[in-house]
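**User:** My hope is that you can spare some time for a protein that puzzles me. As I understand it, each token names a local backbone shape. I would be glad if you read both lines and explained how they fit together. The protein I mean follows directly.
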Amino acid sequence: MSTILEIEKLAFDLKEQERATLAANLLSSLPGILSDEDEGVAEALRRDAEIEASQAQTISFDELDSHTLGEVTSEAPTRLDV
């Protein structure tokens, strides 16, 4: 473990461009994998399939933004109920 810490210290002593190059080289050396530990990818695929099958009602981001902004300004509590 001390070797990793030593390498990290040396890396942080590099100039910004050198660190960026090192980081890019290290990342490109790793295999490309998808991690779905929290099942987020599966949920996104399920929702996409619902939208494609027209089973889900969709709204634009602007509609969502105006709707939620209206809720925040008109329904904001005056105090926190804890």
Summary: The chain has a mean pLDDT of 80.
